[in-house]
Fold:
Amino acid sequence: MITYTPLWRTLKEKNISQYDLIKKYGISTGQLDRLRKNNPVSTATIDNLCAILHCNVSDIMEYTFNQHN
Structure:
């Protein structure tokens, strides 16, 4: 399962708020909602966040093994 937990740590470290992402950088509230709920987002969104935050993909998302049954 892909989670976006690293994104929230990276935002805090870089002192960038979700409000900043919306107002300064044009990230939609819908995309942020998807990220908060660990729902799929496009690679374009990930690319955009990496550019905004000057970071790597691993600073935004991580894969955790989720065994079913």
Notes: The two ends are 15 Å apart (CA to CA). The chain has four helices and two strands. Residues 43-53 form the longest helix (11 residues).
